[in-house]
Amino acid sequence: MGDAVCVANSCRAASSQDVEEDGEDGDPDASDTSDTEDVQQPDTVEPPPDAEVDGHDDTSDDIDTHADADASDPDADTWPEALELVTTLPADEARDIGLGVGIELRFNQPLDRTTVTPSMFRVEVLGQGTIPHRVTLDPEDPSIVRLNPSDTDDWLVTLTTYRVVVMANLRGIAGARMESNATFTFQTRPPRGEAFREALARHYAPVVYLEVENEVIDTFTRVDFDGDLDASNNLRNSQRAQEAWTYYHVVETATHFFVHYLFYFPGQLPGTLTGDPYEHAWLGVMVIAQRQAESSFGQLRAFATMWEGSKDVAWVGPAAFYQAQQTSAVSHAAGTPSEPNTMVRMTWGDNSLEDGRRPVLFVPARHHALCAMRSISQTDYTCTITAGPTSPFRSDSRVFRRVFRAGETADQPLPGTSSGEHSYRLISFASLVWPNRHLRAPGQLFETLEEFVPAGNDPDGLSMDNTTFVPTRLQESANARVFRASGQTPFAFTGRASRREGADLRAVWLLDPSWYARRAFVFPENFARRYCFNFFLSIDERGRLTFCTQAEPELP
User: Where are the domains of the chain?
Assistant: First the structure.
């Protein structure tokens, strides 16, 4: 799987046309992707570089320069010698910008309309590709330029960072130029319904029994806990227990919610290994809840835990749990003769849930496995819960015993503190990934983007057209120890329920949870395969399709 060019929430494989060249007097990042002919300009004006933003000729309808500005303006001598971009709407680094907004640029003097062309203005998904737009010079005030969507093309999308570049070759009315390209960035708002999804995540948020032996690596936190978006220095900057954060992500069908919880650790030391820890560890649990008309948050049906990117366990309730729900029991899927389900299958016990809906999970020190409050005996599943007065923790004076529940604060335990109750805070996983997926160079957040391809064409689910590119590895330091799962993000999770034709399918646990759940469990109720809301795959059918009209209940 190769690198990608991303536009809005969709991506395509990079091609030779995506190789950009520097514009005159511009920076390397402000180049163009035009394959059209240069626009002819009057002899008195130096032609702009052959940069083309939207693939249209500069003389097309994508430019509107009806202003009466004239290069022979008798007041030309009164304008500043240098052209400057004075204000922008949205403002630089603005957040939560609406999707229908236009972009407005105000300069310190009227512009030479012959240089106000699409090639002078770039709108791009930050670091990944340009998007089409129209350019309009204000007829009443020719110092104002507006950028708006092309008639037939998509414009802004949710939770995405955009950069606008104004090329230095733009001219003022008397020929003044900018000293260099001018740039600014802004980020669009999250998709609608985020408040409900966060409340849903809080409703099922796990209780975590965390065993702590090494403060540096044994606390789950944010990837940017150290205040930067450089993942390669996380282990070095983790000198004590960090604030406790947990990422969440919600996918919706007409019949079920899939709520993912993702725990990030700066490092890990599997087994009995000694020395420097491996960098980065991700654990995850996916809660599957059935929608109900009488309950906004539905009803817990099953959950699946995941760690080391491939070790997954399917958890169902005992018969008494489903009897109390007055529903038929969820069972484990056996798979097919050609592809049997080889994942570990467990039944949770009385101490595996809190309030009848929150999974109670145990994470051992050093080796960050994830299991519910039942011992797992399989040889390669080392998350074994010990018996005794300190259960589930070891009876070891070197081990601190901490219990975390979702709350309003992200607690940072004091060094050397032993057992105690603490709070972790929820944060959207999409808010970390999507606005920052362009940060994939040394000293930044991610290492690679890889293409996600669904398991196959499903008339009632995803098709082979539902592809996207997602970051699968975090950056590691130059001397990082190599471990089979170190650096992998949850987009690289496979799991034993994700095998098809002998191959592990990456990312289905997170991106196609309906497909994964049907491979891991047997649900007696109606189980929709088509998504109403799946952010990473740009699916939002809420309010459009009949079966998705109930996809966003009101908050209780």
Answer: 4-188, 194-548
Question: For residues 346 and 112, what is the distance between their CA atoms, to the nearest angstrom?
Answer: 71
- Cα distance between residue 409 and residue 432, in whole Å: 19
Measured in whole angstroms, the distance separating CA 430 from the mean position of its chain's CA atoms is: 3
Q: How many CB atoms lie within 10 A of CB 274?
A: 8
Three-state SS string across 52-118, please? CCCCCCCCCCCEECCCCCCCCCCCHHHCCCCCCEEEEECCCCEEEECCCCCEEEEECCCECHHHCCH
pLDDT tens digits, one per residue of 121-177:
999 887 667 888 889 999 999 999 999 887 655 578 888 889 999 999 999 999 999
Output the pTM of the full model: 0.76
CATH of 4-188 given 3.30.460.20, 2.60.40.1220, 2.60.120.260, 1.20.1250.20: 2.60.40.1220
How far the first Cα of the chain sits from its last, in Å, is: 44
> Which tokens hold the place of 443?
């000293």
3-state secondary structure of 203: helix
- Other CB atoms within a 10 A radius of the CB of residue 398 amount to 9
